[in-house]
Please model this.
Amino acid sequence: MTFSYWMLIVTLAVAAFSVRVLGLFAGDAIKSSRVSWMLDDLPGLIVVSLVASSLAGQPIGTWIAAAVALAVAYCTNHVILTMCIGVTVYGVLIWSGV
Model:
């Protein structure tokens, strides 16, 4: 390997390490700030936004299965059961032609 390849590897390694270290410092600064309470709901908001964007433009069967999965999640608070029932409802709806 030539010198330019080694320099590229070293540069990328330093950049990757720097991003991680800066993320640690930024995370500590955000956790100790006065707006840190907003981060408590961030994981749930990310999941909701991913689900909402994936449902856009889907047929009605997908929306019904998502609504059933939401109801199961709300009632049971059990992730595996929610996934199993949601997939089963989706499969039944697709199989029945909805």
User: Anything to note?
Assistant: The chain has a mean pLDDT of 91. The two ends are 59 Å apart (CA to CA). The chain has two domains: 1-34, 41-98.
